[in-house]
Every structure is written in structure tokens, then in C-alpha cells.
Design brief:
Layout (H helix, E strand, L loop, with lengths): L1 H6 L3 H10 L5 H13 L3 H9 L7 H13 L3 H10 L5 H13 L3 H10 L5 H14 L2 H10 L5 H13 L3 H10 L5 H13 L3 H10 L5 H13 L3 H10 L8 H14 L2 H13 L6 H13 L3 H10 L5 H13 L3 H13 L6 H14 L2 H13 L7 H13 L3 H10 L6 H14 L2 H14 L5 H12 L3 H13 L8 E6 L2 E6 L8 H17 L5 H5 L5
Antiparallel strand pairs: 1-2
Length: 540
């Protein structure tokens, strides 16, 4: 009974049942701790843990450590880890995952070396951490150390190489694999799609000895990505019976449409979903809400939302995030209040959405109230994403000291997003000293990305500190760090047209830049940007 309550997020009922239980075993405690921690109620999970008369159950310790780690509270997790009477491999891997997924690879590497016992999960966590951080040299060296690399290790390595543009090397890894199952083929297929090599992906897809639903979804998403919507539709129609689009396939396809703002193809999928009778599936319905919202069709998103019979927390979150994304801050806050009126308990994702809405709409007071409500009313520990929103809210309003103080006092590790929000606010309000500090912190976390130094250079230029501008440019040039080219796209009739900042091969480039010049002039005349900000050029 309690399992049913917890896994359906009926925490109040589960807690009442838990309190009435005369005899509680380690499984009951572990279940309560796991479900509270999973939903962001870390303090409640801790209280359950502290109430245990017998703390010899390793599963309960691991459940709470997992809660700390997944909620970004690594120092608390490590403290609890150090207090464990007996640690097992799960304990070590849980803590290791916290370090790797937060990008703290120095700590992760040292922690890994301390482990007396390691399994394939341990090795792959570190390998994935290096690839996610963009440290491919370290990833290559670490891969060579792995005893008998599994298919997952090979797939992780080739995916990491492809993610950072090393497709040829990824192909080399794929060709050298002694064992290739569908997971490996799918990883290589995704690698080609990520690098816009759809023709190569099609060749690979045709060579695959075995295809699953992921294979089909990946190749379809590749055609959508480059605007071949008709081809994508044909593939949907020709999927063999055993791989026919199911709820998961449709949800994945809709997520691709959302990420590319490909509304036209998304609407086609919507019609197919209705035809196949999947509209009552919550995952599909929620994916539709998100797709329409990210395509800017907020009314269509609301229509889908209104047609759902049994709205869950994800449904509410999807529409709240949609309002936030499209600049409807007040509507997002009203929807949050409506959600509370229906007695739906908000979670961490809910507050990311509504705080983002306050950020975009400049609702500082509402943002602070909701941030406090999250912890005081619902007992949800803020994640890095929540702090990012609040730093941005305060920073945009010119309350830079409060934003910095919030960073200084928060329990979670400061992320690139948090320092980036502060840096952007410093540019807006011309605070050079704090900008310099934030940029250095950001560059420490993301040494392979130029965005922090480019923005800092622009802040120096705003303040007339041209010597500092030259210093940043020289540093970038001397270290061979190149600016990532900007990219945007639009959906035009039945095509998705992609534009890249360093690509002048587009047939109508001259017309595009003439139109851009006209728009820039009009913006200048409306005084939306001052002259120095418009004149600034990104360095690279």
C-alpha cells in the first residue's frame, strides 16, 4: 500500500500510513527515504533516516546519499558517506556519480583511485565524466586503462568524440569494436546525426543487422533536423510492425520537433498520434504540450492541456514552462496557483518553470516569494537550476550584491549556469569587478568554452578598458581557443533552414545581411540598444 502511495507521489497519505505502522523494517525506511529524496524532499528524507532506531542498513544510507547527490548537495552527501559504518560498491559509485555529473573531474579522479573495488559502472562513470567535460585527451587515456571495455564503454567514447566534432575518430572507434550490438550501432547512428551527416547515417542505418525503436527514432530525427520532413514522414509510415511507432517513439519524435521548433512536422505527428489512439497516454500528451510551447504556439499547447482528462504534475510543469519560455510570466504564476488549487503537489521542475517565468517577466518580488515557498511550504531543497533563476532575477534587477550573497550561501555547488547568469547581469549593469570574478569562476568550470571570456571582453569594452580587451583576445589566440559559431534555424513551408554565423555559402546571403542591416538600423532608431553595445564584436 505504501509503495503505491509513494510511487504515485501521494506523500501525505504515505507519511500518515508510515506513522501508523507499529513495525517498520529496513525496506520500509529505505522506501520512504528513496521516494522523498527522489522528489526533492531531502530534509524529510533526512528526518526519516534520523528516526531509524537501527542504522545498520546500507540501503538506507545509500538512499539518502543518492538524494543528496541528485539534488546537488555533494558536501552533505560526502559527509554522510564518510560517516557510514560499512560502505559497499553502491555507496562508492553513488558518490562518484555526483562528482562526475557535476563536472568535478579532479575530485572524481581522486575518489576513483581511492576505490578498492571497481566495476564497469565505476569505469564508465569516469569515462562519461571526461567526455561530458570535453576533456577528450583524459578520456582517451582513461579508456586505455579500462580492463576489457564493454560495449557501453566503447559507445560512451564514440558518443563523446562525436559530441565534440571528432566524427572520424568516433568512426575509428566504431570500426575497431570487437562486439557490436544494437546499442553500439545506435550510438554511431546518433553520432552521425549530431554532426549533421545524415547521408552517412542513412548508409549506416541500412547496414544495421538489427534495428530497434531507438534506431528508427534516431534516423527519423536526423531527417527532421535537416528539414527533410517528407522523408521523416515516409520513415514513420514504413517502420516494420515490430518497430511500429509506440508511445515512446511518438514522445521522442515530438521532443525532437520541440528542440528544433519544427511545428509543421510536430502537427503531423499530432495527427498520427490521434489516429493511433495515443492521446490518452500521459507521456505523449505532455510531449505535445511541450512541443507546441517550444514552437511558440502557446494556445495549441493550452488546448492539448485542456483536453487531458487526468492531468499529472508533468502536464502542469510542461505548460508552466511553456508560458515562461514565451514570456507569459503572469500567466505562468496564475497557472501555478491554479495547480495548487487542484491539490497537485509541485516538484523541483515546477519551481524551475515558475521561477524562470518570474525571471523573464522581471517579477522580482514574486520570484523571491516562490523561492521561499519552495523550501518553507513544500520542503523542496533548491537545485542549481533554481539558484540560476534567482541569480538572474536579482541580477537583472540590479541587485548584484544580493545575487552574489545568494551564491555564497547556497548549499549546492555553483554551476556554469549560475556564474553565467551573474556575468550576464554584470554586463547589463556594468559591474566590471564582479564580472571579472564571475568570468574566472565560469572559465574554471568550462575551460574549453569561450563564452565567458567573450562576454568579459565585451564588458571591458563597454567600460573603455581596451588593454583588458586585448589581453583577453591574446589569451584566446595563444591558447588556440576558438569561439563556437552561433547557429539558428527557421521552419519555412516544408523545410527547416539552418543559418550558421561563420557560413557565407547560403545562396541568399547578401539579401539576408541587407535585411539584417535594416532591422539593426530600426532597432537603433528605437533606442533599444545603445551604440557601444551594438558595435561590440565577439572575439575569437
Amino acid at each position: 500500500m505504501m509503495s503505491g502511495y509513494l510511487y504515485n507521489d501521494y506523500f501525505k497519505e504515505a507519511a500518515e500510513l508510515f506513522d501508523k505502522m507499529r513495525r517498520r523494517d529496513s525496506f520500509t525506511y529505505s522506501l520512504m527515504i528513496t521516494c522523498y529524496a527522489r522528489s526533492g524532499f531531502v530534509e524529510k528524507a533526512r528526518r526519516v533516516f534520523d528516526s531509524m532506531p537501527d542504522k545498520s542498513c546500507a540501503a538506507c544510507w545509500n538512499a539518502l546519499i543518492t538524494g543528496y547527490v541528485k539534488n546537488g548537495m555533494l558536501s552533505d552527501g560526502r559527509k554522510l558517506f564518510n560517516e557510514m559504518p560499512v560502505r559497499n560498491l553502491v555507496s562508492w559509485n553513488t558518490m562518484l556519480s555526483g562528482y562526475t555529473r557535476s563536472g568535478q573531474m579532479c575530485l572524481a579522479a581522486n575518489f576513483f583511485e581511492e576505490m578498492e573495488e571497481k566495476d564497469w559502472i565505476s569505469w564508465n562513470l569516469v569515462l562519461e565524466g571526461y567526455t561530458q567535460a570535453g576533456d577528450l585527451n583524459a578520456a582517451r587515456e582513461f579508456f586505455e586503462r579500462i580492463p576489457n571495455p564493454s560495449v557501453v564503454s566503447w559507445a560512451t567514447m564514440l558518443s563523446g568524440l562525436a559530441r565534440h566534432g571528432h566524427l572520424s575518430e568516433a568512426e575509428g572507434f566504431f570500426n575497431n569494436m570487437t562486439e557490436r550490438n544494437v546499442v553500439a550501432w545506435n550510438a554511431m547512428l546518433a553520432a552521425c546525426i549530431q554532426n549533421c551527416k545524415v547521408d552517412k547515417a542513412v548508409e549506416l542505418f541500412n547496414e544495421m543487422p538489427e534495428k530497434d525503436a531507438i534506431s528508427w527514432t534516431t534516423i527519423i530525427s536526423g531527417h527532421v533536423r535537416i528539414g527533410q520532413l517528407e522523408e521523416a514522414k515516409k520513415l514513420f509510415d514504413t517502420m516494420p510492425y515490430e518497430n511500429k511507432p509506440d508511445q515512446s517513439t511518438f514522445a521522442s519524435g515530438l521532443r525532437v520537433c520541440a528542440s528544433l521548433a519544427a511545428e509543421q512536422f510536430g502537427r503531423q505527428l499530432h495527427h498520427i498520434v490521434v489516429k493511433n489512439g495515443y492521446m490518452k497516454d500521459m507521456v505523449v500528451s505532455n510531449a505535445l504540450i511541450t512541443m507546441y510551447a517550444k514552437c511558440g504556439s502557446i494556445l495549441s499547447a493550452r488546448d492539448v492541456f485542456s483536453d487531458v482528462d487526468n492531468l499529472d504534475v508533468v502536464s502542469w510543469n510542461s505548460l508552466i514552462a511553456g508560458y515562461a519560455l514565451n514570456g507569459y510570466g503572469i500567466e505562468a504564476c496564475k497557472l501555478f496557483q491554479e495547480m495548487e488549487g487542484y491539490a497537485v503537489i509541485p516538484d523541483q521542475v515546477t519551481f524551475v518553470g515558475v521561477l524562470s517565468a518570474c525571471n523573464h517577466a522581471g517579477l522580482v518580488s514574486a520570484g523571491l516569494t516562490l523561492f521561499n515557498c519552495m523550501t518553507q511550504k513544500y520542503g523542496i531543497e533548491p537545485l542549481a537550476e533554481h539558484y540560476t533563476c534567482m541569480v538572474d532575477v536579482l541580477g537583472r534587477a540590479g541587485r548584484l550584491e544580493e545575487a552574489f550573497e545568494l551564491i555564497r550561501k547556497m548549499k549546492v555547488q555553483a554551476t556554469a549556469g549560475i556564474w553565467g547568469a551573474l556575468l550576464g547581469a554584470c554586463r547589463l549593469h556594468k559591474n566590471v569587478m564582479l564580472a571579472d570574478f564571475a568570468a574566472r569562476k565560469l572559465f574554471e568550470i568550462e575551460p574549453h568554452k569561450t563564452s565567458s571570456l567573450v562576454l568579459l571582453s565585451n564588458i571591458y569594452a563597454q567600460s573603455g578598458r581596451w588593454d583588458e580587451v586585448d589581453r583577453v583576445r591574446n589569451f584566446l589566440n595563444q591558447n588556440g581557443i576558438e569561439k563556437e559559431p552561433g547557429c539558428s534555424w527557421i521552419e519555412d513551408q516544408r523545410q527547416i533552414l539552418v543559418f550558421q554565423s561563420d557560413n557565407y555559402s547560403w545562396p541568399k546571403t547578401a539579401e539576408i545581411y541587407r535585411a539584417l542591416q535594416i532591422l539593426t538600423t530600426q532597432i537603433m532608431e528605437l533606442s533599444c540598444l545603445n551604440s557601444i553595445e551594438c558595435a561590440l564584436l565577439d572575439v575569437g
